[in-house]
Amino acid sequence: MIGIELLDDPRADAAAVRTELRDIARLNSLFGGTRAVVRELEMIFKRAGKREEGRGKSATWTLLDVGTGLGDIPRAAAIAARRYGITLRLVGIELSRGAAMAAREIESADKLALVLADGGALPLRPRSVDLVIASQVLHHLPREVAVRWIAAFGTLARRAVILADLRRSQVAMAALWLAAYPLGFNAVTRHDGVLSLRRGYTRGEFNEMLVAAGVHPVARYRPGFRVVAAWESPLTPDP
Questions:
Q1: CB-based burial of residue 230 (10 Å sphere; 0-12 exposed, 13-18 middle, 19+ buried)?
Q2: Would strands 226-232 and 157-166 be described as parallel, antiparallel, or unpaired?
Q3: pTM
């Protein structure tokens, strides 16, 4: 692993974690992190929504977000899902107590159930949730551990898995460092943001992890220096 980020330490100071997670949520909103995940989900919602509409039904799905941070991305997903007649029950996984506490403080109509757990040892049965998402989580892990997590996510999801992370780029590193000042980010966020980008992936590297996890290589770039991969479960419950 390259360097150490604040969020790598589950015992990090809660106030510092809260500050950094707020900065990350702003970055997600401004520079494509949220949109990268929601865009992939919308394609799944659209297909499923048409099927349910033809039956005159509404649908309720469970979405599991591994490394949820403040829960900004699953809540954005819930808003998008409603446009397609789908209600999401949101569950966030966090290893950090500080992060879980910060997520619970967020006021939102879309409730997020928080579970303290390691993403590599989730207390869930196979096919027990509809959707699994993990955004900007895998770069915190050694490559071989990330592969095991990806394989595990595939066993949990009844419908689909969506992974999103950072695309490694010198341009993005410089842009983040410069943008951090007018955005008012503190020194820790600036450091960790650049370090996260250094830990990021090329599309080829992301596809290599997918193949090692037994998944077809589907990684692609999205705006904001993002790399994403999404696939639907072969055991999708709808015909």
A1: buried
A2: antiparallel
A3: 0.93
